[in-house]
Write a structure and sequence with these properties.
about 250 residues, globular, four-stranded mixed beta sheet, 2-enoyl-CoA Hydratase, Chain A, domain 1, alpha/beta, 12 helices, six-stranded mixed beta sheet
């Protein structure tokens, strides 16, 4: 597997570890493709019962869409084309396997989309979160966040684009539990093993039916349509380039 994604097997649980440390595991095309390939292989493996998604090291889970890639692509990008981060989140969302996010640091923008595409989210006590779409002239997470934290809290976090910490993420329901950083991965693996101890078909069917009960399909389509209109407009380009310069210095 491409080195941008490291894969570790722990019995019936597999760990997918994002590995672009120089970019805080920001998602570019190569990482999105590697995740899709890994998901295809995992779903074909009948001995696998659960997946854990995390970032290598202790500083970042995923800093979001790779801004350098997105900035370079914007002027000639096809209108409405999904970002690499959105492609990766969509692929996770479609999986019948239970997915556990072990959020070990920065969880921003497209990284938050990845976390929300997982079924269960655990966070390190030092993890920080942000949904900066409105700052960048885009809509990020509006289709998904309300089912986790409720509409009023979702509006607060998305419309202000402010950072929030692991304690607030736990209090509002964004994450299921918070652990000290050294214990985070083992807690995620223990949760995966607890899932693996149950009937695999019943687990997958339970996930499918819960998904039906909380479906946001129409909202996701509306979010994509909104971004198709917003992406590439002069105001959006200016905002995104200014944000890219602040974050990357380029």
């Amino acid at each position: 597997m491409n080195e941008v994604l490291r894969i570790h097997r722990e019995g019936a649980v597999q760990v997918l570890e994002l590995h672009r440390p120089e970019r805080h595991h920001a998602i570019d095309g190569a990482l999105a493709d590697a995740l899709a390939e890994a998901m295809d292989a995992a779903e074909a493996d009948t001995d696998l019962a659960a997946l854990v998604l995390t970032g290598s090291g202790e500083k970042a889970f995923c800093a979001g869409q790779d801004m350098l890639e997105a900035s370079a692509a914007e002027p000639g990008a096809a209108p409405g084309g999904p970002s690499s981060a959105q492609r990766a989140a969509d692929r996770l969302e479609r999986s019948p396997l239970p997915l556990i996010a072990a959020i070990n640091g920065y969880c921003f923008g497209g990284g938050a989309l990845l976390a929300m595409a997982c079924d269960i989210r655990l966070a390190a006590s030092g993890a920080t979160f942000r949904l900066p779409g409105a700052e960048y002239g885009l809509v990020v997470g509006a289709a998904t966040l309300p089912r986790l934290v409720g509409p009023a809290k979702a509006k607060e976090l998305i419309l202000t684009a402010r950072r929030f910490d692991a304690a607030e993420a736990l209090a509002c329901g964004f994450v299921n539990a918070v652990h000290e950083a050294p214990a985070l991965r083992s807690a995620a693996l223990d949760l995966g093993r607890a899932i693996a101890a149950n009937d695999a078909r019943a687990v997958r069917e339970s996930k499918r039916i819960i998904g039906l009960a909380t479906s946001a399909g129409d909202a996701r389509a509306a979010e994509r349509a909104a971004n198709a209109e917003l992406r590439g407009t002069p105001g959006q380009r200016a905002r995104f380039r200014a944000a890219t310069a602040r974050v990357t210095g380029r």
